[in-house]
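Hi, here's the filled form for the chain we discussed.

Project: internal
Contact: R.S.
Residues: 161
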Amino acid sequence: MTIPDENEEICCAEFNPTLWDDKTFTWINKKFINDSICSLFYIPINFGKVMTRLDKEIRSHDAFIPDMMWLTEHSSPWKINVHAAVSKEIPNYKNTILTGTFYCKVYEGSFRDSKIWCEDFEKVAKSKGYSTKKLYKWCTTCPKCAKKFGKNYVAIFSQID
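And the returned structure, exactly as it came back:
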């Protein structure tokens, strides 16, 4: 693991994969707000800009992002849906809730391995007897912090009930 230089800014908490990897979570009315990111053949174009805007909007309503959880799902090669966990409803955004049991598996490495991770996730979930629905990816740190920490963790979730 790389120890960050004390002069370097760190905006993301260091992720502990053991708390999330190969675990199930029951969410009851877990709150999210939704937005979208433009992508070019599944590669995000304005990811940072959207995250910054959402973070500012959430904080302006005296809310916070539990676990700093930003779930994404690819709806096409041109669009990525973003679901930011929130501590309360945020006006002027599509507020949604997720309820159910979700299986999570954590991967580490380059984002270019995303397809491999998703295929592995489906295989592992099936071997456990889970029937997956949508896959959600949680990029647990921004690219700058991932570089500073020396690890790039991505947690994949799917509702299994």
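Let me know if anything looks off before we file it.
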